Amino acid sequence: MIVQRAPDAVLFDRDGTLVVDVPYNGDPALVRPVPGAREALDLLRAARIPTGVVTNQSGIARGLISAEQAAAVNRRIDELLGPFAVWQVCPHGPDDGCACRKPRPGMVLAAARHLGLAPGRVAVVGDIGADVEAAAAAGAAAVLVPTAVTRPEEVAAAPVVRADLMGAVQHLLEPVGAR
Question: For this structure, is 21 an active site residue?
Answer without folding.
Answer: no
